[in-house]
Amino acid sequence: MSATESTATSATADSQESGMAAKNPAKRRRALIIVAGIFVLAAAGWLLLWLLVLSRREKTDNAYVGGNQVAISAQVPGTVVAIMADDTQRVEAGQVLVKLDATDADVRLQQARSALAQAVRGVRQQTDSATGAEAQVAARRLDLSKAEADLKRRLPLVAANAESPEIIQHLRDGVAQARAALDAAQAQASAARAAVEGTDVARNPAVMQARANFRAAWVASQRNAIYAPVSGYVAQRGVQLGNSVQPGQQLMTVVPLHNLWIDANFKESQLRHIRLGQPVKIEADIYGSDAEYHGKVVGIGAGTGSVFSLLPAQNATGNWIKVVQRVPVRIALDNAELDKHPLRIGLSTDVTVDISNDGGDVLAKAPSVQPVASTDVYAQMAAKADAEADRIVEANLPSTH
C-alpha cells in the first residue's frame, strides 16, 4: 500500500469515529429520557395507587374468627347416667345433652305434690269452717234477741209484783250470757275469715307457698336432664358415665357457628381512620381466594391486648422498650355467607377495611337495647312446672257438677 492510500484510509477511519462519537450522546440522552420516563410513570402509578387504593383501606392478617362458647354445666348435684351428645355433633336448643340419676329428686317431687294437694284441701276446710262460724254468729245473735225479748216482756211485771226479782235477774244474766256467746262467735268467725278472706282457694297464701315448693321441686327434678340452651356443635366434652357432678361443674361446650365475628388486631397507627359501620372484606385461610366474606366494623376495643393480659406490662419499671400496640376491632359477618362457607372459631383471616368514608363514630354513642344472646329453654321449663301445679290445684278443688 502506498503512502497516499494509507493516508486516505486513516482519514476515512477518523471520519467514521468522529461520526460515531457525535451519535453516542444522542443515544445516551434518549436512554436517560426513557429511564427517567419509566421512573416518572412508576412514581405516578404508585401515587395513583396510594391515592385511589392504599390510602382508602387498612389491612391486617392478625385477625381471627370469634364466636360464643356456651359452657354446659350441671345445676343440681347428681350421678351421670347417660350422655346424649359427643364432640363435633350438632345439637338443637332444648335437646337433652346429659342425664343425671333422678331418684332423690323424684321422691322430693312426690312429697311436694302431696303437700300442694293437702294445702288445697286444707284451705277448702278452712273456708267451710269460716262458713260454719258465720252460721254460729247468726245463731248466737238469735239467742241474744230472744233473751232480750224475754227480759223486756217481763220487766213491767215486776212493778205490778207479778214477777219475782230473782226471775228478772236470771233473765238479765241470760241476756249477758247470750251477748258473751255472740261476741265469742264473732271472734271465732273473724279468725276463720282471716285465713281465707280476700282470695280464692288457688291464690290463698298457704296454697301459693305449697305451689312454690312444688315448682322448685319440679324444676329440680327436670334439671337432672341437662339441656342445650342454644343450637350449635359440641366441643370439649369432659363428662363421663358415672361421674358425680356438682352445680356449676362444666361438662361440655356448645359452639353456635352462626352470628360469628372477626377480631382484627390492628396496630395503633392503623386506627386513625377506622370508624364504626365501615365495610370490610375478609378472606379466610381455610378457603383462600375461593370465598370472600363481607362484613362491617361494629366495635373497637376499649384497650390494647397487653392491658387485658394475665400479666400486664409494667412500663414504669426497669428498662423500657417501646412496642407497637394492637387494638381489637370487631367485625360482624353475614350469616348467609357463613351458611355457604362455614367457619370455625379461631381460624385465621386477612381483613381489609374500606376507610374512604371516615366520618362515622369511633365509639358507640348509646347502649344496646337488644340482648346479645338469649334462650327460652329455661322459661319453657318454668311454664311446664306452672301448668303441672295448676292441674294439681284443679284436681283438689270441689267438683262443679
TrEMBL record:
Pfam assignment, any one: Beta-barrel_AAEA
Annotated Low complexity bias: 1-15
Domain p-hydroxybenzoic acid efflux pump subunit AaeA-like beta-barrel residue range list: 261-351
Cellular localization per UniProt: Cell envelope
Primary site of residence: other
Superkingdom as given in the UniProt entry: Bacteria
Annotated coiled-coil segments of the chain: 168-195
Chain residue ranges for the region called Disordered: 1-22
TM region positions: 31-53
InterPro entries: AaeA-lik-b-barrel, EmrA/FarA_HH, MFP
Multidrug export protein EmrA/FarA alpha-helical hairpin domain location: 103-223
Keywords assigned by UniProt, alphabetized: Coiled coil, Membrane, Transmembrane, Transmembrane helix
Protein name from the UniProt record: Efflux RND transporter periplasmic adaptor subunit
Species of the source: Dyella ginsengisoli
